[in-house]
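ugh ok fine here u go
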Amino acid sequence: MTLSLADAEKILADNFAPWVLDLGLAVVETGETHAVLRLPWSGRLAREGGGMSGQALMAAADTATVIAVASARGAYGPMTTVQQSTSFQRAVLDADVLVDARITKLGKRMAFADITITAEGSPDVVARASTVYALLA
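structure:
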């Protein structure tokens, strides 16, 4: 039931608030139980000290979960975040970020995911997140 990259990009374009779209997220991979999005580096997303802001990373993790759930279900359906927990491990400086959302359980009413965030080109984890989603239809 995996979504094509074009279908995933359309879900991104059609279902997210303008400020989320302003992050410039791009879908780079979809699979049966996952999605990988790229968050491009921007000085506008940097906080004091030059690291990418946690708010941007959390929004990217949340968005990647929606695409991963849609890919696992084969289509987008209404859903909402119930819980998100993020642990930051190191700063991202002047690098794009890859956000890898993996579905750990997909039920009829709930979905659970683990997200790993890395700076592109580095194996070191920048942050880890977990999300819980309510599936509304």
